[in-house]
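S1.2 Input.
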Amino acid sequence: MVTWGEAKRWNPAVLQEAVGAINAGYNKLVACSDDLRDITTPEGWHGEAAGAAAVEVNQIIDGLEEYAADIAALRRAAGDTGDAITGVRNGVREAETIASGNHFTIAADGAVIDNGMPEVPPEQEQLVAEERARLAEELKDRVEQVLRQATDIDDDLCAVLGRIEAGNVIDATGNDNENTSLAAAGNSGAVNGALSVLTPPPVGADPSMNAAWWAALSESQRKQLIAQHPDWVGNRDGVKAVDRSSANLNLLEQQKRGFTAELERLRREDGDSDEIARLEERVKAIDSITGMMHDPDGSLNPNRQLMSLDLTGDHPKAAIANGDVDTAQHVAVFTPGMNSTVDGNMRGYVDDLDGVARSAERMLATQGGGSVATITWIGYEPSTLDDPASLVGLATAENVDVGGDKLAKFDQGINASRPTDPHLTALGHSQGSIVTGISLTHAGTGVDDAVVFGSPGVANHFGTDNTAHDLKVPDGHAYNITAEGDAVARYVPETWRYGRAPYAMEGMNQLSADAEVGADGAPLAASYGHSEYTKTMPGEVDSTSKHNIAAVVAGMPQLTVAAR
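S1.3 Output.
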């Protein structure tokens, strides 16, 4: 077992430099192939001596073929190991950066040492203590995954060296020496000299463990997994957004081919109509996602990231980002409510949230600038009811509980995938605000601000008299917006309550959705009803609710307009 202290000292340069010398020797050897073919059939030589010479030559050729395979295996193993060590070094670097930036130390044996909590206001002590406990677990996960990768590399290299030492890389005795090729033998040896790529943590692993696994892989290993095992990568919270997106785009193509082929078979054989309808919905969702991820000319939109793709369950699910989630200083995750579908209204949500990001960046530009990414997350199965009044049936809906747990991990994964945390805002509309509220009862989501709008409540337990302090965000960083004419937000909490009504919740900042004037003197339009909160109004005028959401996303609450 490799120790943390040993892994910190690993240096890929030694092996990377050795590859050049090994390759030079290999090239000299394979250049002898033509000469070997010539001496296997000496022209005009017959008899017992010629036969004995041929046997000796064949043995030499077999030995050289095996030698070529040995050298090629060594070259491949040295190159793969040197490459893989770059991943180990990256994993070590990220873990050490997180530790030193948060008053932790990682000892030579891998133990995580807490050097003490910084001074914070008394009311923040519990939240900070929970965050430090989460950080300690994350660092333990990172140490574990780095050492798992290092041990895997060490075991693989030792296995290759053992095969070379035992002469078991290839068996050349069955080759046709009349047409021998040392290069072909070398190719076989190179295959046997390849290192494995570390398999991911179990399904359902904490995002910090997934992040640690991904960080400890080299860039070439990541590309290999994205190409060969996109299903391991695309929905794994904690993996970098750009890599999740690449994997999910590969998976999107694979899934469409599979669904289309199955559809054609079922239609040809007059198959089950329900299954045909299910597959048709999947293909429609794939086409919709493909459209959202590409520009009108068919090129991939560089401003979009496909952060999750789940075509199982009752309905397709996905998460699409505007901007670069891996580098943006401010990231917002928006969870829409009932009747939301990937192939229906998701495109409108994505476009609206792009508008929120642009408004937030305009605000940041007045203070020196800043980058924003927004994510539309339909990672749960929203209820689909024709009559919103029947929200009574959602009071104990399992989908919001499951969705809240999944959303908490998704948020955790954004922070875990980055060496430095972004300013993270949770946005929830309608039933999505219930999912958001449940997610924020989990410790360590990394959410700094939360805004709910059109919300019937932020709890899933009937009659719960909760407060904004129950949400695990800093005090004073939870906001509610209720528009005039929004029956869901105005009346549902008074009939079937998902916790205390957000418009009357202790500790919840109330923001305006009325026509107002912004801090810069620009007019802001009113939003009305249940579905206009993130809309840009006619004349390219921001609504007050959109302005307020953007101000919180930008980390500039001083620009919000309070409700009257």
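S1.4 Remarks. Residues 117 and 456 are 38 Å apart (CA to CA).
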